[in-house]
Amino acid sequence: MKVLKFGGSSVANAANISRVIDIVLGQHQQDHDIIVVVSAAGGITDSLIQMAEAARSGNDSYQALFEALCRKHQEMIEELLGTNARQPVQTQAQKLCDELDNLLQGVALLKELSTQALDAIMSTGEQLSAQIISAAFNYRGVPCTYVDARELIQTDNKFGHAAVQIEATYQRIAHAFKQQQGLSVMGGFIAADQSGVTTTLGRGGSDYTASLLGAALDAPIIEIWTDVDGVMTADPRHVKGAFPLTSISYEEAGELAHFGAKVIHPKTMKPARLKNIPILIKNTFNPEAPGTLIDGVSKQRQHLVTGVSSLANIALLRLQSSSIKYISEISARVFQALSKEHIEVLLTT
Ligand code: ASP
Ligand code: MG
Protein backbone atom coordinates (compact mmCIF):
# COMPACT_ATOMS: atom_id res chain seq x y z
CA MET A 1 0.00 0.00 0.00
CA LYS A 2 1.47 3.30 -1.15
CA VAL A 3 0.59 6.67 0.38
CA LEU A 4 0.55 9.79 -1.77
CA LYS A 5 -0.20 13.17 -0.23
CA PHE A 6 -1.12 16.26 -2.24
CA GLY A 7 -0.97 19.71 -0.65
CA GLY A 8 -3.25 22.72 -0.98
CA SER A 9 -1.77 24.17 -4.17
CA SER A 10 -1.83 20.73 -5.85
CA VAL A 11 -5.62 20.60 -5.34
CA ALA A 12 -6.37 24.32 -5.56
CA ASN A 13 -8.66 24.06 -8.60
CA ALA A 14 -10.08 21.63 -11.16
CA ALA A 15 -7.09 21.95 -13.51
CA ASN A 16 -4.62 21.10 -10.74
CA ILE A 17 -6.79 18.25 -9.51
CA SER A 18 -6.74 16.80 -13.03
CA ARG A 19 -2.94 16.83 -12.85
CA VAL A 20 -3.10 15.05 -9.51
CA ILE A 21 -5.42 12.41 -10.98
CA ASP A 22 -2.99 11.84 -13.87
CA ILE A 23 -0.07 11.43 -11.47
CA VAL A 24 -1.97 8.95 -9.30
CA LEU A 25 -3.32 6.96 -12.25
CA GLY A 26 0.20 6.79 -13.70
CA GLN A 27 1.25 4.93 -10.54
CA HIS A 28 -1.98 2.98 -10.13
CA GLN A 29 -1.04 0.79 -13.09
CA GLN A 30 1.87 -0.71 -11.14
CA ASP A 31 0.56 -0.23 -7.61
CA HIS A 32 -3.01 -1.32 -7.22
CA ASP A 33 -3.40 -0.18 -3.61
CA ILE A 34 -2.92 3.55 -3.14
CA ILE A 35 -4.18 5.92 -0.46
CA VAL A 36 -4.33 9.53 -1.59
CA VAL A 37 -4.25 12.05 1.26
CA VAL A 38 -5.35 15.56 0.33
CA SER A 39 -5.23 19.00 1.90
CA ALA A 40 -8.03 21.48 1.57
CA ALA A 41 -7.89 23.43 -1.70
CA GLY A 42 -5.23 26.16 -1.44
CA GLY A 43 -6.34 29.15 0.64
CA ILE A 44 -9.49 27.45 1.95
CA THR A 45 -8.28 26.83 5.52
CA ASP A 46 -7.20 30.48 5.81
CA SER A 47 -10.56 31.55 4.45
CA LEU A 48 -12.43 29.31 6.93
CA ILE A 49 -10.49 30.83 9.82
CA GLN A 50 -11.19 34.29 8.48
CA MET A 51 -14.94 33.67 8.28
CA ALA A 52 -15.02 32.12 11.74
CA GLU A 53 -13.28 35.17 13.19
CA ALA A 54 -15.52 37.58 11.31
CA ALA A 55 -18.59 35.73 12.60
CA ARG A 56 -17.33 35.98 16.15
CA SER A 57 -16.74 39.70 15.91
CA GLY A 58 -20.25 40.25 14.53
CA ASN A 59 -18.92 41.17 11.10
CA ASP A 60 -21.37 40.11 8.40
CA SER A 61 -18.55 39.83 5.85
CA TYR A 62 -18.36 36.17 6.81
CA GLN A 63 -21.44 35.50 4.71
CA ALA A 64 -19.78 36.65 1.49
CA LEU A 65 -16.71 34.52 2.27
CA PHE A 66 -18.93 31.54 3.03
CA GLU A 67 -20.83 31.92 -0.23
CA ALA A 68 -17.59 32.25 -2.21
CA LEU A 69 -16.27 29.05 -0.64
CA CYS A 70 -19.39 27.05 -1.47
CA ARG A 71 -19.48 28.45 -5.01
CA LYS A 72 -15.81 27.62 -5.56
CA HIS A 73 -16.37 23.98 -4.64
CA GLN A 74 -19.53 23.72 -6.73
CA GLU A 75 -17.52 25.05 -9.67
CA MET A 76 -14.80 22.49 -9.06
CA ILE A 77 -17.44 19.76 -9.20
CA GLU A 78 -18.86 21.17 -12.44
CA GLU A 79 -15.45 21.33 -14.07
CA LEU A 80 -14.36 17.86 -12.98
CA LEU A 81 -17.53 15.83 -13.46
CA GLY A 82 -19.99 15.45 -16.32
CA THR A 83 -23.58 16.59 -15.78
CA ASN A 84 -24.95 13.11 -15.12
CA ALA A 85 -22.32 12.20 -12.56
CA ARG A 86 -22.46 15.31 -10.35
CA GLN A 87 -25.52 14.76 -8.25
CA PRO A 88 -24.20 12.59 -5.37
CA VAL A 89 -21.12 14.73 -4.68
CA GLN A 90 -23.10 17.93 -5.13
CA THR A 91 -25.47 16.72 -2.43
CA GLN A 92 -22.52 15.89 -0.16
CA ALA A 93 -20.91 19.28 -0.75
CA GLN A 94 -24.20 21.04 -0.10
CA LYS A 95 -24.57 19.13 3.16
CA LEU A 96 -21.10 20.23 4.26
CA CYS A 97 -21.88 23.82 3.31
CA ASP A 98 -25.15 23.71 5.27
CA GLU A 99 -23.28 22.38 8.32
CA LEU A 100 -20.69 25.13 7.95
CA ASP A 101 -23.45 27.70 7.68
CA ASN A 102 -24.99 26.44 10.91
CA LEU A 103 -21.65 26.50 12.70
CA LEU A 104 -20.95 30.07 11.57
CA GLN A 105 -24.39 31.20 12.61
CA GLY A 106 -23.84 29.65 16.02
CA VAL A 107 -20.53 31.48 16.38
CA ALA A 108 -22.16 34.75 15.25
CA LEU A 109 -25.04 34.37 17.71
CA LEU A 110 -22.83 33.52 20.66
CA LYS A 111 -20.07 35.92 19.63
CA GLU A 112 -17.76 33.18 20.83
CA LEU A 113 -15.35 31.00 18.89
CA SER A 114 -14.04 28.05 20.86
CA THR A 115 -11.09 26.04 19.55
CA GLN A 116 -13.53 23.13 19.26
CA ALA A 117 -15.85 25.14 17.02
CA LEU A 118 -12.92 26.35 14.94
CA ASP A 119 -11.76 22.75 14.38
CA ALA A 120 -15.24 21.78 13.19
CA ILE A 121 -15.25 24.80 10.86
CA MET A 122 -11.72 24.17 9.52
CA SER A 123 -12.48 20.49 8.89
CA THR A 124 -14.91 21.50 6.14
CA GLY A 125 -11.97 22.22 3.82
CA GLU A 126 -10.48 18.71 3.79
CA GLN A 127 -13.90 17.06 3.79
CA LEU A 128 -14.87 18.98 0.67
CA SER A 129 -11.61 18.45 -1.21
CA ALA A 130 -11.46 14.73 -0.40
CA GLN A 131 -15.08 14.07 -1.39
CA ILE A 132 -14.71 15.97 -4.65
CA ILE A 133 -11.41 14.33 -5.61
CA SER A 134 -12.75 10.90 -4.79
CA ALA A 135 -15.78 11.56 -7.03
CA ALA A 136 -13.46 12.82 -9.78
CA PHE A 137 -11.49 9.54 -9.73
CA ASN A 138 -14.70 7.57 -10.02
CA TYR A 139 -15.76 9.78 -12.89
CA ARG A 140 -12.49 9.00 -14.65
CA GLY A 141 -13.47 5.35 -14.45
CA VAL A 142 -11.26 4.32 -11.55
CA PRO A 143 -13.19 2.98 -8.58
CA CYS A 144 -12.24 5.03 -5.54
CA THR A 145 -13.39 4.98 -1.92
CA TYR A 146 -13.77 8.14 0.16
CA VAL A 147 -12.43 7.61 3.67
CA ASP A 148 -13.44 9.86 6.55
CA ALA A 149 -10.18 10.59 8.43
CA ARG A 150 -12.11 11.10 11.64
CA GLU A 151 -12.90 7.40 11.75
CA LEU A 152 -9.20 6.48 11.65
CA ILE A 153 -7.06 9.20 13.24
CA GLN A 154 -7.81 9.31 16.97
CA THR A 155 -6.49 12.17 19.09
CA ASP A 156 -6.85 13.75 22.49
CA ASN A 157 -9.12 16.77 22.70
CA LYS A 158 -6.56 19.56 22.56
CA PHE A 159 -8.47 21.30 19.80
CA GLY A 160 -6.38 23.12 17.22
CA HIS A 161 -3.29 20.98 17.75
CA ALA A 162 -4.50 17.61 18.96
CA ALA A 163 -2.02 14.86 19.86
CA VAL A 164 -2.51 11.59 17.98
CA GLN A 165 -3.10 8.44 20.01
CA ILE A 166 -0.78 6.31 18.00
CA GLU A 167 -1.74 2.80 19.05
CA ALA A 168 -5.48 3.25 18.62
CA THR A 169 -4.92 5.08 15.34
CA TYR A 170 -2.64 2.41 13.86
CA GLN A 171 -5.08 -0.32 14.86
CA ARG A 172 -7.97 1.47 13.16
CA ILE A 173 -5.97 2.13 10.02
CA ALA A 174 -4.72 -1.45 9.78
CA HIS A 175 -8.22 -2.77 10.33
CA ALA A 176 -9.82 -0.42 7.78
CA PHE A 177 -7.33 -1.20 5.03
CA LYS A 178 -7.37 -4.94 5.61
CA GLN A 179 -10.78 -4.98 3.97
CA GLN A 180 -10.30 -2.10 1.64
CA GLN A 181 -8.13 -2.36 -1.41
CA GLY A 182 -7.59 -0.33 -4.56
CA LEU A 183 -7.69 3.43 -4.53
CA SER A 184 -8.84 5.49 -1.53
CA VAL A 185 -8.96 9.23 -0.91
CA MET A 186 -8.86 10.73 2.55
CA GLY A 187 -8.57 14.27 3.90
CA GLY A 188 -5.44 15.06 5.86
CA PHE A 189 -5.25 17.33 8.92
CA ILE A 190 -8.58 16.28 10.45
CA ALA A 191 -9.15 13.73 13.17
CA ALA A 192 -11.51 13.02 16.05
CA ASP A 193 -11.19 12.55 19.79
CA GLN A 194 -12.38 9.45 21.64
CA SER A 195 -15.97 10.64 21.62
CA GLY A 196 -15.89 11.29 17.89
CA VAL A 197 -15.68 15.08 18.18
CA THR A 198 -13.74 16.63 15.28
CA THR A 199 -10.19 17.78 16.03
CA THR A 200 -7.29 18.98 13.85
CA LEU A 201 -3.57 18.22 13.89
CA GLY A 202 -2.24 21.79 13.57
CA ARG A 203 -1.74 23.89 10.45
CA GLY A 204 -0.02 22.01 7.66
CA GLY A 205 -0.85 18.72 9.40
CA SER A 206 -1.84 16.76 6.27
CA ASP A 207 1.77 15.66 5.79
CA TYR A 208 1.61 14.15 9.26
CA THR A 209 -1.61 12.28 8.38
CA ALA A 210 0.15 10.75 5.38
CA SER A 211 3.06 9.65 7.52
CA LEU A 212 0.75 8.06 10.09
CA LEU A 213 -1.02 6.08 7.37
CA GLY A 214 2.25 4.97 5.84
CA ALA A 215 3.64 3.85 9.19
CA ALA A 216 0.46 2.04 10.24
CA LEU A 217 0.42 0.08 6.97
CA ASP A 218 4.18 -0.44 6.61
CA ALA A 219 4.02 1.31 3.26
CA PRO A 220 7.10 0.97 1.03
CA ILE A 221 7.12 4.76 0.55
CA ILE A 222 5.29 7.94 1.53
CA GLU A 223 5.17 10.51 -1.24
CA ILE A 224 4.51 14.16 -0.41
CA TRP A 225 3.51 16.06 -3.55
CA THR A 226 3.85 19.81 -3.26
CA ASP A 227 4.59 22.86 -5.44
CA VAL A 228 8.39 22.97 -5.25
CA ASP A 229 11.09 20.59 -6.48
CA GLY A 230 11.94 19.31 -3.01
CA VAL A 231 13.67 20.39 0.17
CA MET A 232 15.87 23.31 -0.84
CA THR A 233 19.27 24.24 0.54
CA ALA A 234 17.75 27.61 1.50
CA ASP A 235 14.59 29.65 0.96
CA PRO A 236 14.72 30.47 -2.78
CA ARG A 237 12.83 33.72 -2.17
CA HIS A 238 15.80 34.99 -0.19
CA VAL A 239 18.74 33.03 -1.56
CA LYS A 240 19.36 33.06 -5.32
CA GLY A 241 21.60 30.03 -5.53
CA ALA A 242 19.32 27.73 -3.51
CA PHE A 243 18.87 24.29 -5.07
CA PRO A 244 16.88 21.16 -4.19
CA LEU A 245 18.62 18.44 -2.20
CA THR A 246 18.25 15.03 -3.80
CA SER A 247 18.46 13.17 -0.50
CA ILE A 248 18.63 13.97 3.20
CA SER A 249 18.25 12.06 6.44
CA TYR A 250 15.17 12.13 8.69
CA GLU A 251 17.15 14.14 11.22
CA GLU A 252 18.20 16.75 8.70
CA ALA A 253 14.68 17.05 7.30
CA GLY A 254 13.27 17.29 10.81
CA GLU A 255 15.67 20.07 11.78
CA LEU A 256 15.08 22.03 8.60
CA ALA A 257 11.30 21.69 8.94
CA HIS A 258 11.37 22.64 12.60
CA PHE A 259 13.47 25.70 11.90
CA GLY A 260 11.46 27.20 9.09
CA ALA A 261 11.70 25.13 5.88
CA LYS A 262 8.02 25.14 4.87
CA VAL A 263 8.09 22.16 2.54
CA ILE A 264 7.16 19.50 5.11
CA HIS A 265 5.45 19.54 8.49
CA PRO A 266 7.97 18.81 11.30
CA LYS A 267 5.83 16.03 12.82
CA THR A 268 5.91 14.06 9.57
CA MET A 269 9.31 12.49 10.04
CA LYS A 270 8.71 10.59 13.28
CA PRO A 271 6.17 7.92 12.25
CA ALA A 272 8.12 7.26 9.04
CA ARG A 273 11.49 7.19 10.80
CA LEU A 274 10.34 4.67 13.43
CA LYS A 275 9.34 2.28 10.64
CA ASN A 276 12.22 3.27 8.38
CA ILE A 277 9.88 4.24 5.55
CA PRO A 278 11.37 6.66 3.04
CA ILE A 279 9.55 9.93 2.35
CA LEU A 280 9.81 11.30 -1.16
CA ILE A 281 9.04 14.99 -1.75
CA LYS A 282 7.84 15.62 -5.31
CA ASN A 283 6.59 18.56 -7.33
CA THR A 284 3.07 18.19 -8.78
CA PHE A 285 3.89 20.91 -11.30
CA ASN A 286 7.22 19.40 -12.34
CA PRO A 287 6.86 15.63 -11.87
CA GLU A 288 10.01 14.91 -13.87
CA ALA A 289 12.19 16.55 -11.21
CA PRO A 290 13.76 13.84 -9.00
CA GLY A 291 12.52 15.46 -5.76
CA THR A 292 14.05 14.90 -2.33
CA LEU A 293 14.33 11.48 -0.75
CA ILE A 294 14.25 11.51 3.05
CA ASP A 295 15.43 8.32 4.73
CA GLY A 296 17.65 6.83 7.41
CA VAL A 297 20.79 6.60 5.32
CA SER A 298 23.51 8.99 6.41
CA LYS A 299 24.64 11.14 3.54
CA GLN A 300 28.10 11.84 2.29
CA ARG A 301 28.24 15.17 0.58
CA GLN A 302 30.82 17.42 -0.92
CA HIS A 303 29.49 20.37 1.04
CA LEU A 304 29.58 20.39 4.81
CA VAL A 305 26.32 22.27 5.34
CA THR A 306 23.11 20.54 4.26
CA GLY A 307 20.88 23.58 4.27
CA VAL A 308 20.18 26.90 5.87
CA SER A 309 16.68 27.66 7.09
CA SER A 310 15.24 30.96 8.19
CA LEU A 311 12.39 31.95 10.47
CA ALA A 312 10.42 35.18 10.38
CA ASN A 313 8.26 36.78 13.06
CA ILE A 314 10.35 35.65 15.97
CA ALA A 315 10.08 37.41 19.29
CA LEU A 316 13.13 37.77 21.44
CA LEU A 317 12.39 37.88 25.11
CA ARG A 318 15.00 39.08 27.52
CA LEU A 319 14.43 38.69 31.23
CA GLN A 320 16.71 40.31 33.71
CA SER A 321 16.99 39.72 37.40
CA SER A 322 19.21 41.23 40.01
CA SER A 323 19.58 37.92 41.74
CA ILE A 324 20.84 34.62 40.38
CA LYS A 325 19.15 32.85 43.26
CA TYR A 326 15.73 32.51 41.64
CA ILE A 327 16.82 31.68 38.11
CA SER A 328 15.47 28.15 37.97
CA GLU A 329 12.22 29.22 39.56
CA ILE A 330 11.80 32.09 37.13
CA SER A 331 12.67 29.85 34.18
CA ALA A 332 10.04 27.36 35.27
CA ARG A 333 7.41 30.09 35.48
CA VAL A 334 8.38 31.56 32.12
CA PHE A 335 8.17 28.19 30.34
CA GLN A 336 4.88 27.39 32.03
CA ALA A 337 3.36 30.70 30.96
CA LEU A 338 4.56 30.24 27.37
CA SER A 339 3.34 26.64 27.25
CA LYS A 340 -0.10 27.70 28.46
CA GLU A 341 -0.39 29.93 25.41
CA HIS A 342 1.11 27.26 23.10
CA ILE A 343 4.08 29.49 22.34
CA GLU A 344 7.01 27.46 21.18
CA VAL A 345 10.47 28.23 22.48
CA LEU A 346 13.04 27.80 19.75
CA LEU A 347 16.15 28.67 21.65
CA THR A 348 16.99 29.59 25.19
CA THR A 349 20.20 30.63 26.79
N1 ASP B 1 -5.42 22.56 5.23
C1 ASP B 1 -4.59 22.59 6.40
C2 ASP B 1 -3.78 23.88 6.44
O1 ASP B 1 -3.88 24.69 5.53
C3 ASP B 1 -3.71 21.40 6.52
C4 ASP B 1 -2.71 21.20 5.38
O2 ASP B 1 -2.82 21.82 4.33
O3 ASP B 1 -1.80 20.38 5.56
O4 ASP B 1 -3.09 24.11 7.38
MG1 MG C 1 -0.18 22.64 3.31
Write up what this structure looks like.
By secondary structure, the protein is an alpha/beta fold. The chain has 10 helices and 10 strands. The strands form 2 sheets. The protein has an 8-stranded mixed beta sheet with strand order 3-4-2-1-7-9-10-8, with helices on both faces. It has a two-stranded antiparallel sheet with strand order 5-6. The model has no long low-confidence stretch (mean pLDDT 95). The structure holds aspartic acid and magnesium ion. Magnesium ion binds at residues 7-8, 39, 204, 206.
Give a short synopsis of this structure.
The chain is an alpha/beta fold. It has a domain at 2-226: Carbamate kinase, CATH 3.40.1160. The chain has helices spanning 14-28, 44-56, 61-80, 87-110, 115-139, 166-179, 206-216, 250-258, 269-275, 327-340; strands at residues 2-6, 34-38, 144-147, 183-187, 190-192, 198-200, 222-226, 247-249, 279-283, 292-295.
